[in-house]
Amino acid sequence: MKQHLVERELTAEGPRRRAGATGPSRHRRVTVNIAESPLSWLHAHGHIDERLFDAGERLRADYERAQLGPNVTMRWDPVRIKGSGDQGLSVTERVIAARTRFHGALAQAGRGLEDILWRVVCAGESLPVAEKALEWPARSGKLVLKLALDRVADYYRIT
Description:
There is one protein chain. This protein has 6 helices and 3 strands. The chain is mainly alpha-helical. Strand 1 (5-11) and strand 2 form a beta hairpin. It comes from Alteraurantiacibacter palmitatis.
């Protein structure tokens, strides 16, 4: 896959997605490959708009916060992700809240659409690999993914 490198401001939570000031900055900057996930590749090449990309990123963030991914070894430290709406909650309560949001978003997408969402957004599979695994016709995944992301954007109230 071809790299698509851009410079982003480095914050405590990671690289800032939207560029702030275009002039010289006092903050550290980092070069990011925005083509590293299938969702960001689709967004970088104009196949999905900002609303759908934001919905996918919110779903992926909830997946990560809910700690639903497979564990290779024992986790010794809790996941600490700074975000809004989590103030005053314990680590366990944050995980439960993220899990509830994640499952709610998948339910909003509906049967048949949750598979492509999980494969592309959460598992990081490319569209051709996901289409093949789901035994779908070639080049049908992008349309189905757009429909699913639109429903997820409605769930997260992204305008």
